[in-house]
Amino acid sequence: MDVPYRLTRMQFLFSLLGGLPGTALCQPSSGLARELQQRFANEGLALVRIRDNWMGFFIGGGNTITRNPKGNSVAWFSANGDFVAWWILNSPVIIHSCPGSIAVAGRDGRLLWQLPGGFRGGGELIQTLGLSQDGRRVALYAENVSGQRAAHVIGPVDLSLQWVDITTMKMVQISEPSRADDVGSISWAPNGNSFVFDRAGKIFIYDLASHRTLAVADGRDPTWSPDGKQIAFRTEEGRAVAINPTTLEKKAFLGNRKILSAVQWSPDSRYVLATEPASTVDKVTHLDPSVSAITRVYKLSDMSSVTVDTINIDSLDDRGRWWFWILDYPGFLRGAGTALPLRCGP
Predict the structure, then answer these.
(1) What is the pLDDT of residues 85-100, one digit of tens each?
(2) Quick check: is 346 in a domain?
(3) What is the C-alpha separation between 142 and 149, in angstroms, rounded?
(4) How far apart are CA 256 and CA 245, in angstroms?
(5) Domain harbouring 141, CATH code
(6) For the whole model, what pTM was predicted?
C-alpha cells in the first residue's frame, strides 16, 4: 500500500546529511520550528491531517504518519481544536456498523452527538464541512441528508448547503441542491451564531437567528479566526486578504501573498497555515522540480515560516486543505482509537 509522503532519491541522500538549510528536512534549526516543538511539548499543539486510512501530524520539525484508527474515515476539526467531526466510512480493514455516519467527538474520543441520517455511497457526497467551536453545530455542503439516493449509484450528485445543531437535530437547508457553484470552505464565528462560506466567487455570512445571508466580499475559501477578529480568504487573483466581520473593512493578509488554499488558523490565532505556489527557489531548495506548491506555517507577529508539506502536480487538488490545528495531540490520538457508539438509520 502506498504511503502518502515520499522523499525523492536526492532528498533522501541529503536527509542522511541533515538536510539543506531552510528545508523541511532541516527545520529543527528554525526558530519557529523550535517554538512549535516547545508548544507541542507544553500543550500538545499540532497540525493534523486525517484522510482515508492515514493520519499525519506536524509538530515543527517534520511530518509523521500513522494509520487512521478509524480506518477509511475523514475528519474536520473545530477552530479551537477541541472537537472533531468524523465521517465514518468502511475500509477493507475496518468495517463499521453504521457507515456514512457523521459523529462529533471531543479530543478525548468521547461521543458528543451524531448527526441525523447518513452519507453513504462515496466520498463525493460531502464537499466541505464546518464545526462550531463548542462542537454543537455543524454546517456542510453535501447531499441532502433526507434524499433517497441509493448507495450503489455512481456519478455526480446534487449538493446543498445545510446546517444542524445538537438541540433540534433537524437539518436546515439554506440552498437548493445543485451541481454548480461549489462551496469551498465553511467556518463558524466563535459564538456559533453565524458562519462564513463562499459560493460562485463570493464570500457570504449566514446568520442563524435571522436566517439572512449577507454577501461581504468577492473571493473564495474563507475562514474565521478563533478570536473572532478577522475572516481570511483569497481573492479572485488568489491573493490573501482579511476582512473585519464587524466593519467589513478589508486589508492585505500574509504580505498579500498568492495562496492556493484556505487559511487555517491556530487556536490562539497566532499562527496560520496556507498553501502557496512553489517558486523556482523552492524547487531548488527542496531538490524536486515536480514540486508545484508549498504548505507553510506563518507566525503572524513576525512572518517567520516553516514548511509543513510539499505538493506535486498529482496532488495539487488537495492544496493542503485537510490540515487542521489541534491541542493535546497525544490525548487525541489515544481517544481516536475509541469506538464510537453510533446508531444506524434516521
Answers:
(1) 998 876 655 666 677 7
(2) no
(3) 13
(4) 19
(5) 2.120.10.30
(6) 0.84
